[in-house]
Amino acid sequence: MRVRMRTTAVVAGVSSLALLTGLTGCGAADMTKQASPFAGAQGAKSVTLSVQSWVGAQANVAVAQYLLEHELGYRVDTVQIDEVPAWDALSQGRVDALLEDWGHPEEEQRYVKDKKTIVPGGDLGVTGHIGWFVPTYFAEQHPDVTDWKNLDKYADQMRTAESGGKGQLMDGSPSYVTNDKALVKNLDLDYQVVFAGSEAAQITQIKQFAKEKKPFLTYWYTPQWLFKKVPMTEVKLPAYKEGCDADPEKVACAYPHTPLQKYLNADFAKTGGEAAALLKKFKWTTEDQNEVSLMIAEQKLSPQEAAKKWVDSHESTWKAWLS
What we know:
This protein is of the alpha/beta class. It is built from 11 helices and 9 strands. Strands 1, 2, 3, 4, 5, 6, 7, 8 and 9 form a 9-stranded mixed beta sheet that branches. The model is unreliable at about 1-40 (pLDDT under 50).
């Protein structure tokens, strides 16, 4: 799902968090070749963090950046990268840390176990789950829609201009972790996966559907602040069992519940001093992340403002990361 520094508390010009305020587990422009100008700077107290386009990932980075700058005196840079390319950038040392990964076993095997250029940074403290959701107002009217076996019954009501005569299953960005095309095919459902293009576009569409009280079926995930604004109910897919998603073409089961992980560049983990130590200890709750996410996405605070507000009111939480 996926910063470098100096003694001054100045944010690097390439910092992309401010540009992402309108976005919100799980794609973004590939900037793996645009390394931080501070990456690997000899003797500089600098850190570069990878930031993904969904707001939960932005919330992690915003708080980490604020503490690194204001408590430890680092210079922080952020680079926006898609999920898989972020692993390449991390391995190459173009970024130092990835604070929210939703599970990439192939990259973990390649870089952590084989090349040993990346090391685990520990649990983020948040458990992620991807699933299919319908608006709760529709589920209350049609309780059986929450079982995948009954979805075809409602395909006509879920049809859109983009779904080609079938029901629409709305996804976000094609770069996100998704098995949806395989699921639709293997469960023989009368639906078409339609990509909104980004989480921001998907949220706009969900809000519009909700405003008009229209039915919809969407790929979505928890934790996510939007549930507070548009209550949604999960559709039960065939139960997840270990290994049922091993072959991407044959997936016919639900998504797992995934404890979200942090990863560090191996060299940075050894030589990153206080910054590496803080990022390893950075661990908060779903409620913490949603609190900051809501401030960024809905209250329209800048990531820096949201981070400061959270830091000011949760000192007992983050103080432990500095000890």
